[in-house]
């Protein structure tokens, strides 16, 4: 469990005091809710596996904790397509364990179905940038993944990992120790440890990268509010997005995880999440997730211009 350190005064998010006496269940204040392949894709891989009403990927050696159905796809979006549109001269490769790729992509973007924890079949020294975002419940051997990323970088290439660290934080004691969000965070930490994908693994990224020969290691830690409680308008918007993300996707995020790791029934999970959702909407509770962004550069000398971008 990550130990909370006292934040610097300038790093404390100021709450929007208009919510101090407001009803946290005020619906008017809420955000409206609501290529090619390295492997032949069989019909069973395309269909996936149904558990407790959600569809999960069946490709790969290990189980991935998140679903791959339309509900999940509406929540997460597509990074590779956006980057391909922004940089038309780059060749962008998106990799996923689930066959969820869209039918239309830019001409400089392709998707491949593969398990990134297995041996990579791409040519070594071939990528200028390898980017990974929110590989939650997906990676069981980060050092091996980092080794492969380093070997497949061009000289001077960059690795960039982004991930939420799902250990809830609060700077002003508005989140009680026995609150639903605290219990949720504790259950998340315990279940991911049992599942083999500890939610606090991003805390160990820096040491793993330094041990494996990358330099210019830099890290930024952002505070991602769980709802629009901050006074700052940008953070308020981020909080609104995260509240929508949690309210809309919470069941898919943890149902398989809690059932398999904690041995809860699906019904127990849904009952537990009722109070969690209520607290997520409470703007008098000033909690946030630490969101880590880590950048690393290969020690080898830079050659050429950006051509290959890999997204995992």
TrEMBL record:
Q: CDD domains attached here?
A: AdoMet_MTases
SUPFAM superfamilies, per this entry?
Answer: S-adenosyl-L-methionine-dependent methyltransferases (SSF53335)
Which InterPro entries does the annotation name?
A: SAM-dependent_MTases_sf
For this protein, the parts annotated as crossing the membrane are none
The residues forming a coiled coil are none
> What are the boundaries of the region Disordered?
1-21
Similarity comment: family membership: Belongs to the methyltransferase superfamily. LaeA methyltransferase family.
Q: Which PANTHER family match?
A: LAEA-LIKE, PUTATIVE (AFU_ORTHOLOGUE AFUA_8G01930)-RELATED (PTHR43591:SF31), METHYLTRANSFERASE (PTHR43591)
Q: Mind telling me what this protein is named?
A: Uncharacterized protein
Q: Which organism is it from?
A: Staphylotrichum longicolle
